[in-house]
Write a structure and sequence with these properties.
Blueprint: H1 16-31, H2 41-45, H3 49-63, H4 77-87, H5 95-111, H6 114-117
Helix pairs in contact: 3-5, 4-5
Length: about 120
């Protein structure tokens, strides 16, 4: 066999679509994902009155558009995280806003209305 004649499969390169499509698929998949919001209990308990007021305002703004607001004490720390993971992406709230809302709800669920007792 002539050295200049290569096996046909040796000359095959992945098509441009074969290289680009997986990257596009990955980017589209990631665009639909939102990072899960997580607030540690200590962070919520140490939040300032200003941070809590912001969270309460955002809670009223974003959550009340779909349903009556729940009392924060109606749910536990873990239940609020589950609810936020499920329903947070349905809102137009940013990740930062969802974090502020969750911080308020956790504090309020454990200590009553934080805005009445916050300094």
């Amino acid at each position: 066999m002539n050295a200049s004649m290569k096996h046909p499969e040796e000359n095959v390169r992945p098509s441009r679509c074969g290289r680009v499509l997986p990257v596009i698929f990955l980017l589209v998949s990631l665009a639909g994902c939102r990072m899960a919001v997580r607030v540690e209990r200590d962070e919520a308990l140490q939040a300032s009155g200003e941070q809590l007021a912001e969270g309460k305002t955002l809670y009223e703004l974003h959550c009340e558009t779909c349903h009556d607001l729940y009392e924060p004490a109606d749910f536990t720390y873990n239940e609020w995280h589950v609810a936020m993971r499920k329903y947070g992406p349905r809102t137009e709230a940013s990740h930062q806003d969802l974090h502020a809302i969750l911080r308020y709800l956790i504090r309020a669920s454990e200590n009553g209305d934080p805005l009445e007792t916050a300094p």
